[in-house]
Amino acid sequence: MASQLLKGKKGIIFGALDERSIAWKTALAAHAEGAQLVLTNAPIALRMGKINELSKLCGDAPVIPADATSMPDIEHLFQKSMEALDGKVDFVLHSIGMSPNVRKNIEYTDTNYENFHKTLDISSLSLHRILQTAMKMDALNEWASVVALSYIAAQRSFPGYNDMADAKALLESIARSFGYHYGFKNKVRVNTISQSPTVTTAGSGVSGFDAFLSYAEKMSPLGNASSDDCANFCITLFSDYTRMITMQNIFHDGGFSMTGVSQAIVEDEQKLASQG
Ligand SMILES: NC(=O)c1ccc[n+]([C@@H]2O[C@H](COP(=O)([O-])OP(=O)(O)OC[C@H]3O[C@@H](n4cnc5c(N)ncnc54)[C@H](O)[C@@H]3O)[C@@H](O)[C@H]2O)c1
């Protein structure tokens, strides 16, 4: 399928933890499309994850640690990336999410606010930090594309998603707000992709995830979008074929977001009613 759509482009991929990660699949797809990459993740994730394996699969892409909540780390990352890539950056994938409240099974209505701050800092403000640093360092080429990953709980209520729902709402808003400024300043575009539930470390941590997954599958006319599908969609947003799209949240969910109810769900309910 690869057709060198990203030939000559240079990108930074945040968030590849293991082979299930959406960032992992996106890095492989971007490499196959001819891009030159830098891979990054939080220092602790680099120690626990398998990023060196991914680096080899991506032509020995440099791996540069950066905690996405640390301004010095992000500055260092852009500096070293421009040196390694021998120039400015054409695309960035923000594939970062973590909620200590979700991890510790703390209910939304009983939230721990220190944890909540961390959720927002890691999962949302990190996008602002990355964009602000890139802008100050003039690290992105004109028409560069920044993509972050979101979920429909930003707009509709999904109780198990906890404070990550608020984090995603903020993430989408930052993409819109910063996209305005970066577009006028340097023709840089910023978008979010609202992805189907996907089996990954972050995804599976959400309470009731398996039920979520099968419900969404039954509700979506095309079925759930896989992480490979998501990677391919990221490639299109990094490419020049989508250069006039910015400040958008784009649903990549097999039609889930536009479906009120599906026949499969109706039949499930009918079965339950007939048993009762
Ligand atoms: N899996 C799903 O169902 C799903 C659905 C929609 C959106 N998303 C979003 O996709 C993105 C990628 O998640 P994934 O599903 O591939 O899971 P994942 O667990 O593989 O990736 C999450 C990444 O965030 C990184 N991270 C956490 N804290 C960090 C920090 N302080 N600094 C830098 N990196 C940090 C982790 O190390 C990890 O690599 C997340 O934003 C997630 O919310 C996932």
CATH architecture: 3-Layer(aba) Sandwich
Unreliably modeled segments? none
Structural class: alpha/beta
Let me know the CATH homologous superfamily. NAD(P)-binding Rossmann-like Domain
Largest sheet data: 6 strands, parallel
Radius of gyration: 19 Å
Detailed description of the structure:
The mean pLDDT is 96. It contains eleven helices and six strands. It has helices at 22-32, 43-48, 51-57, 71-85, 100-103, 113-137, 164-186, 201-204, 209-219, 227-238, 263-275; strands at 10-14, 36-40, 89-94, 140-150, 189-195, 249-252. The N and C termini lie far apart (50 Å). It has a six-stranded parallel β-sheet, sandwiched between helices. It has a single domain, classed as Rossmann fold (3-Layer(aba) Sandwich), CATH 3.40.50.720. By secondary structure, it is of the alpha/beta class. It binds nicotinamide-adenine-dinucleotide. Residues 14-15, 17, 21-23, 41-42, 45, 67-69, 95-98, 122, 149-151, 195, 197-198, 200-203 line the site of nicotinamide-adenine-dinucleotide.
In short:
The protein has about 280 residues and is of the alpha/beta class. It has helices at about 20-30, 45-50, 50-55, 70-85, 100-105, 115-135, 165-185, 200-205, 210-220, 225-240, 265-275; strands spanning about 10-15, 35-40, 90-95, 140-150, 190-195, 250.
